[in-house]
Amino acid sequence: MEKGKQLYEGKAKKVFETNDPTLVIVSYKDDATAFDGTKKGTIRGKGVVNNRMSNHLMRHLEKAGIPTHFVEELSDTDSLVKRVEIIPLEVIVRNVSAGSFAKRYGVEEGIEFAEPTFEFSYKNDDLHDPLLNTSHALALGLATPTEIEQIRTMALKVNDELRRYFADLGVRLIDFKLEFGRTLSGEIVLADEISPDTCRFWDSKTNEKLDKDRFRRDLGNVEDAYQEMMRRVFGEEA
Ligand code: TMP
Ligand code: ASP
User: Fold this and answer.
1) Nearest CA to 158 among 146, 137, 176?
2) CA–CA distance from 192 to each of 57, 61, 80, 174 (Å)?
3) Cα 189 to Cα 131: distance, rounded to the nearest angstrom
4) % helix, strand, coil for the chain, step of 5
5) Which residue's CA is the nearest one to ligand 2's atom 2?
6) What is the pTM for the complete model shown?
7) How far, in Å, CA of 8 to CA of 134, rounded?
8) Which of 9, 33, 209 should be mutated for ligand 2, with most atoms under 8 A from CB?
């Protein structure tokens, strides 16, 4: 499949047309941003890690019955995916307090929840991705009530699957952000990516951070953390 015209360039990925109107090519970059794009940098090798890990996890989730946009890995950084209209909601599931949850509610990081939490942000950097509830999402016409219910069910199922998957690799899945899309036929599928950019991963024994928080918080060893997650997922063959 050949890359056609560039349709879109985001902060971490580019999207290209193909000769099939139902498919697009996603190309992962090493560019990293934080705080709505105000902090910028490069994480060497990130494009490869995020592309390969995201594809691997989406294949795993498909097997568990969760529909995704994934079609085929084309190269280390490029993948063929279904063309979707992204629903502008950042769908966040948390198992342990961290990040904006800890800050907003004035609690320490690392508190294990009895049940996972589920929240939406409005995907809009100019507004700093404000938190919003279901009635707000409906009022803004971002999705239908049925779609919101499907998204919630799928996100919690993704959490069950991935929590177990990463636990076996000695990694605690603290929280993560998903995006969903509508295919041309109107089906809701898991889209975007699942990677150290969009999840918090802590080592199960040491609680060492193995994700993008190392970049956001200037903790150092950013590339090493991405490579370590690659090794945990793919073993030494990576
Ligand atoms: P938060 O604690 O900053 O709200 O982040 C929750 C999760 O969402 C965390 O795993 C990182 C991820 N995330 C993104 O994927 N994109 C973003 O823009 C932000 C702020 C967080
Ligand atoms: N999406 C954020 C940004 O605006 C990045 C992040 O914190 O993950 O750059």
Assistant:
1) 176
2) 12, 14, 12, 19
3) 22
4) 30, 35, 35
5) 34
6) 0.97
7) 28
8) 33
Count, residues in the chain = 238
Per-residue pLDDT tens listing for the chain (238 residues)? 889 999 999 999 999 999 999 999 999 999 999 998 999 999 999 999 999 999 999 999 999 999 999 999 999 999 999 999 999 999 999 999 999 999 999 999 999 999 999 999 999 989 999 999 999 999 999 999 999 999 999 999 999 999 999 999 999 999 999 999 999 999 999 999 999 999 999 999 999 999 999 999 999 999 999 999 999 999 976 6
213: nearest Cα among 52, 103, 120? 103
> Rounded CA gap, 26 and 6, in Å?
10
Distance from Cα 1 to the centre of ligand 2, integer Å:
30
**Ligand 1 centroid distance, CA of 135 (Å):** 22
